Amino acid sequence: MTGRVRPRLVYERWTDPVAEEILGSAGIDVVKLDLDGANEQSWAALSSAHGYQVATRTDVAAVTGGEQWLAGPELLRRCEQLLAVCSAGAGYDVIDVEACTRAGVAVCNNSGPGAEAVAEHALGFMLDLAKNITAADRALRAGPLDDRTALRGSQLHGKTLGVVGLGAIGSRLVELCAPFAMDVLAYDPYVDAKVAQSRGVILVGLDELVERADFVQLTCPLTAETRGLFGRRQFAAMKPTAFFITTARGLVHDEAALYDALAGGSIAGAGLDVFHEEPPRADNPLLALDNVIATPHTAGITVEAAHDIAVATATQWRTIFDGGVPPRLLNPDVWPRYCERFSDILGFSPSAATVLKMKGHTR
């Protein structure tokens, strides 16, 4: 192919209009995917796309056959020009990374920009559960309160926090908890002891973490390794005074096992921002329990986070179509084949500097 091809990017939505502003001056054709429109139109847009900002699982849940718009083998088969796919946030369970790597498609997420929002939300769950804030609010609204001491809570100070996943969110949560002088344990097979020590954290196995922690926080992505990570055995090993909190993805924990642990008093309570089915049905048994507080996957939805994620998203797409290394590339092994496809499809190759940088990235 001779001459550069104008790149084409398909997206479902931006978290903030600033993304459109950043991309508008970059010489990129930007096309909105209408999930409520005709399938033929959507496939026509995607079949010619070089980049796809993948719709979230919540977006597609309300659409008949919505799973087809996630980045899996079928979509990759139909979109032969596709060079890169990106998830809207830190989670990337909407993308089949292995299938993309086989197809020579780069996979990126947007970890980092929303970490503050999610970490603050997780801390909010901890404070709410410990201090019985939501429980007290419910009791007041239900009628006359005979004995306020029944709402006696506990304090975070001096307790043990167990973090499952020490990425951007987990690390920021550790920082936010520093004023409470908590002992912090972490389970993350991809973090070494030296890094953990620099963050004031003791690395332990998952079994030890659940046995010792007063607050168990899931902040890990949903992957083949973490799917079903938390089940009956883990809940049974927790202290009866401990709280389970997750801002990760619903399928990391077993909802039925969690319900039994909460209803049977095996653990004290839970703060849930994610569910197996999103949005959760009103008759989800967990929502009927008094020792559960819940939000509809809104931990990362703040004005500031929406803006920052949009900026990071658009900037990453500009980097991709300029021939650079995406700053949040999840499958670096794809790089040699990706470069070949990039050159064939867009008509130019990543710069020598980019290739050298990538070699350093993959070591």
UniProtKB/TrEMBL annotation:
Residues annotated as domain D-isomer specific 2-hydroxyacid dehydrogenase NAD-binding: 123-299
Span of domain D-isomer specific 2-hydroxyacid dehydrogenase catalytic: 74-331
A UniProt-annotated Pfam family: 2-Hacid_dh
Keywords: Amino-acid biosynthesis, NAD, Oxidoreductase
Gene3D superfamilies given in the database record: NAD(P)-binding Rossmann-like Domain
Cited PROSITE patterns: D_2_HYDROXYACID_DH_1 (PS00065)
Example of a GO MF term: oxidoreductase activity, acting on the CH-OH group of donors, NAD or NADP as acceptor
InterPro entries cross-referenced by the UniProt entry: D-2-hydroxyacid_DH, D-isomer_2_OHA_DH_cat_dom, D-isomer_DH_CS1, D-isomer_DH_NAD-bd, NAD(P)-bd_dom_sf
GO terms, biological process: amino acid biosynthetic process
Family that this chain belongs to: Belongs to the D-isomer specific 2-hydroxyacid dehydrogenase family.
This protein's name: D-3-phosphoglycerate dehydrogenase
Organism: Mycobacterium heckeshornense
Taxonomic lineage: Bacteria, Bacillati, Actinomycetota, Actinomycetes, Mycobacteriales
